[in-house]
Amino acid sequence: MALDSSGDPEHPILSHPYSWELVEFMYREDQSDWRESYIDLVFARDGQERRLRFLAPRDLEMSRGLPNSIGLVILDISGRQLEGIKVRVDNFEQSHGAPRFWAAEVFEVFEQLHSEPE
Fold first, then answer.
1. How many helices (H) and strands (E) does the chain have?
2. Backbone angles phi, psi at 18, to 5 degrees
């Protein structure tokens, strides 16, 4: 497991997310409980799509440009023992459009991403 410059290991949920294309960025706000809000990132590569859901995101930063995965890294920061935060989405290249935020946790959503018309 690789470490970033802060010493945090990459999260095992998706190895080298910068080598995937970010094809969807979605924020869902739960107005009654912010901890139920989430960000979905959908990554695509070689005909495969993976939807990752980041719960209770905070401190979202996006520079100008469309969301993309250039320089994107997902870090397991549970070792820092921060209350309610175990994941950091960051950008090691400081490229335009790559999202940066903290989250309580991340998991993969296993649902059909695109349905075929019947």
1. 0, 8
2. -65, -15
